[in-house]
Design brief:
The structure holds two protein chains of two kinds. By secondary structure, chain A is an all-beta fold. Chain A is 0% helix and 55% strand. In chain A, the strands form two sheets. In chain A, strands 2, 4, 5, 9, 10 and 11 form a six-stranded mixed beta sheet that branches. Chain A has a five-stranded antiparallel beta sheet with strand order 1-3-8-7-6, with no helix packed on it. In chain A, a hairpin with a 5-residue loop joins strand 4 and strand 5. By secondary structure, chain B is mostly beta strands. Chain B has no helices and eleven strands. In chain B, strand 7 and strand 8 form a beta hairpin. Classes of the chains: A mainly beta, B mainly beta. The interface between A and B is medium-sized, with 26 and 31 residues.
Chain lengths: 112, 118
């Protein structure tokens, strides 16, 4: 059974800091990995998707990497801003049509 | 707005009542997923449709839960005889089929329906 872990559960950083959010998964036979952002009481916003054959994806200040063999992904946020404060969730799928298995998320607070 | 929409956004009900939620996926997406999220947890998969066919159901989906997608467009999720443990955010997501040009099965989520069972 696939399990996804995100540690720590919460993180507080000063504005402007570059930061890395970690995600690990137990079964390396994944199809893709998605990073999401969730604001309090809201739905999920897709940030980046990495196919299993890819090593990284970039969007603006965000860069996600994938090391499938070691079961790890990182989300790098450059020059963090207070508006980046949210919960960041990592999720993996194990097939082209399959469901996502989520971690519990990392709640990020960026202090002005 | 062409995103996934869900209705209602909030629902408060008494234990034992039935509730029904609706999800409208992005129009060209033939795959639709339901997830449930409780406080402090990541979303958990409930069920999945491809067009009108329900292809997978989680063990979380007890016999009090039923989902339909009668014409392959919108979907409904009904909970009968609600219990306090059903209180959660119910999230709907949709995606394009593989081979349609969106190869990656990227799932797009709606705003969710927050259910509170008193």
């Amino acid at each position: 059974k696939q399990e996804v872990t995100q540690i720590p559960a919460a993180l507080s950083v000063p504005e402007g800091e570059n930061l890395v959010l970690n995600c690990s998964f137990t079964d390396s036979a994944i199809y893709n990995l998605q990073w999401f952002r969730q604001d309090p009481g809201k739905g999920l916003t897709s940030l980046l998707l990495i196919q299993s054959s890819q090593r990284e994806q970039t969007s603006g200040r965000l860069n996600a990497s994938l090391d499938k063999s070691s079961g790890r992904s990182t989300l790098y946020i450059a020059a963090s801003q207070p508006g980046d404060s949210a919960t960041y969730l990592c999720a993996v799928s194990t097939g082209a049509n399959s469901k996502l298995t989520f971690g519990k998320g990392i709640t990020l607070s960026v202090r002005p | 707005d062409t995103g996934v929409s869900q209705d209602p956004r909030h629902k408060i009900t008494k234990r034992g009542q039935n509730v029904t939620f609706r999800c409208d996926p992005i129009s060209e997406h033939n795959r639709l997923y339901w997830y449930r999220q409780t406080l402090g947890q990541g979303p958990e998969f409930l069920t999945y449709f491809q067009n009108e066919a329900q292809l997978e159901k989680s063990r979380l989906l007890s016999d009090r839960f039923s989902a339909e997608r009668p014409k392959g467009s919108f979907s409904t999720l009904e909970i009968q005889r609600t219990e306090q443990g059903d209180s959660a955010m119910y999230l709907c997501a949709s995606s394009l089929p593989v081979g349609s040009g969106q190869y990656y099965n990227e799932q797009f989520f709606g705003p969710g329906t927050r259910l509170t069972v008193l």
